[in-house]
Amino acid sequence: MKSQEMNGKKDIFTPKDIKSVIKDYTLVTLGVLLVTIGVYFFKFPNNFAIGGVTGLAMILSNAFNGAISSGTIVLVVNILLLIIGYLVLGRKFGNRTLYGSLLFSLSLNLLEILVPMSGPITDEPLLELAFAVIFPALGSAILFNIGASTGGTDIVAMLLRKYTHLDIGRSLLITDFILTLAGFTVFSVKTVLMSILGLLIKSTLVDSIIENLNLNKYFTIITKNPDQICDYILNHIHRSATVFDGKGAFTQEDRKIVITVMSRSQAVQLRNHIKKVDPGAFILITNTSEIIGKGFRA
């Protein structure tokens, strides 16, 4: 156990806290590497200005005839936006995003040295666009889901989400659309139109991936044996439940209604258990990804 003094208050770090931090930063690393692969190997070589600081970096780098590398521009702009992120979104977000943006910028600069790209990997622009969207969308979704980002306009998107309550996909679309349109000043119409297509797909894909990452099962169980079901939920699945009285509209028989929420794998266990202890139970199982409360999102 480790303690440290900060602002006159004592913060206690338990093994559970340390494990959580390690998990978070492992996910940040994975997310950043996915974004880096999509950006460097598919986005940069094809000039897909799909918004973001990387899109701005490509536009400026081409405007200066390559005198300044895209990786360098990304690093400078990220530093400026990180300062804003720290001030507005807090230290926890700032620390993760600082790590993510530095790793992202350094990875791009390192790849420019180790694996210089003179052109696209293939001669199929649509195929390259697909990978230029899928990798960053998956990486960004992992980052946003734990309150981190690679910096850049992701910070602007998270500011928009905080103050307007827009979902992250729409926030990204708004912040990146203007930068994508700016590509008309440097790139061909075909390239910019494909970039706009990629931007639209990415904004939708990010929301879809985040929703699936957070997907849980919401149970409404109408049963005669609530005690056995609740005991299994509490002691085997280690979740909680709420029980209240109900009465059948047709039979007028008294029943108990149990409601609970759990992960998909836990849901399979509970469903099988209910079949054993109360085959006549009526079960409604609904997908849900927005759960706020203890054990889920704060």
Overall description:
The chain is of the alpha+beta class. It folds into two domains: 2-213, no CATH class; 216-288, 2-Layer Sandwich (Alpha-Beta Plaits), CATH 3.30.70. 62% of the residues lie in helices and 13% in strands. The chain has helices at residues 15-46, 52-63, 70-89, 91-114, 125-145, 153-164, 168-181, 189-213, 226-237, 264-277, and strands spanning 2-6, 9-13, 216-223, 242-247, 254-262, 282-288. The strands form two sheets. A four-stranded antiparallel beta sheet has the order 4-5-3-6. The protein has a two-stranded antiparallel sheet with strand order 1-2. Strand 1 (2-6) and strand 2 form a beta hairpin. Helix 1 (15-46) packs across helix 4, helix 6 (153-164) crosses helix 7 and helix 9 packs antiparallel against helix 10. It is elongated.
Shape: elongated
Number of domains: 2
Overall SS class = alpha+beta
Q: What value does the Rg take, in angstroms?
A: 24 Å
Low-confidence stretches: 1-10
Mean pLDDT across all residues, rounded? 83
Report the oligomer.
single chain
Spatial strand order of the main sheet: 4-5-3-6
The strand count comes to: 6
Percent helix among the residues?
Answer: 55-70%
- End-to-end gap: 24 Å
Secondary-structure element pattern, one letter each:
EEHHHHHHHHEHEEHE
Largest sheet: 4 strands, antiparallel
Report the portion of residues in β strands. 5-15%
Tally of individual helices: 10
